[in-house]
Specification:
Layout (H helix, E strand, L loop, with lengths): L2 H34 L8 H32 L1
Helix pairs in contact: 1-2
Length: 77
């Protein structure tokens, strides 16, 4: 891999980090909705939807972190 390709990949890592931060921020906001929801609504449809959203966003953030790690590993080889 040449220097130009490494630079492009490093830029992509930075962009993925920014995206991951945004996803985590939105996940935290949705989690806060869950945490502040009255207990009598914990078994309702809306609660389940928000739980699903939080779970999906957590998975997305984790996938972005894995992608960043994998790209960094390819740079270091």
């Amino acid at each position: 891999m040449n220097k130009t390709q490494r630079k492009k990949l490093e830029k992509l890592i930075d962009q993925l980090a920014e995206i991951q931060d945004q996803v985590e921020s939105i996940r935290d906001q949705e989690q806060e909705k869950l945490d502040n929801m009255p207990e009598n609504l914990h078994y309702g449809e809306r609660y389940s939807q928000i739980e699903s959203i939080v779970s999906s966003l957590e998975e997305a953030a984790s996938s972005l972190d894995t992608a960043r790690y994998d790209i960094q590993s390819s740079i270091e080889q």
